[in-house]
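Request: When convenient, would you put together a sequence paired with its structure tokens?
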Amino acid sequence: MTIQEIRKADNVENAIKAFGTVARRNELLARGCTAWELKQAVAAGTVQAVARGYFALPEADPLDVQFAQHQARRTCFTKAEELGLWVIRPMQQPHVAVAHGRPVPGCVVHRVKGGQTLTNIMRQCVRCGTQVEALTVLESAVVLKKCTIGQLRKAFSGRGDTAGRAIVEMIDPQSQSIVEPVARYYLKQAGYNVQGQAAVRGVGHLDLLVEGILGVETDGEQYHNTPRGWAEDLRRDNLLVIEGIWKLRIPAAVVLYHPELMLRWVRQALERIESSNK
């Protein structure tokens, strides 16, 4: 290959990387690649033509190649997870968007024509998942500054968006992790009054305050299983005792995957608080 040919091949590779490891021809052309450059990159072996109108890097994810061969793309919760939004658990089968509507082996198919916006993806999550699953996606979009609550209200203002509007009204933009909306959701569904990121003098903010008397901290391993996190937890726990505030510290895994256990602990703690105040 000549130096010029190498540069052209690099241009195509870099363009594909902007989309991951697989990209459509029209996407690459829109990024400035030419049909001749695509042809030269394939001839040089730096890029592979994996399906009609689709090009991939040699190290492409086999799943992405499969999607290309079926003219499919990630959507719904599968796309939300790729975008870094909060998804409680990965889907057992990838959710894909296709225009043709035909089955894609091993996938849940959504028939979608044209491009996909963030709003399209969130609307699919509302229609496809449970209320709490959709809440985590929509709330994370707000927390991560991908959209505002006002924009969501406008997006879900149609006649068929009743379910979406109900979820938007549950959003707390102060949440700091996926565990908080999940815990808040189940506690409110159980009939409890719940305040998120409740300020306590000298302590800081509790993840949740239930019935105004029971603090709930939802602990994830990433922060709390560190020397600094452990020391801060001890400081806060001591100050909460001094302030006379009862508190539960509940592992994230319990909140996300065993909410019934969380609800039992909260009920038992509230009963104990009530009995101690008699």
Notes: The longest helix spans residues 259-276.
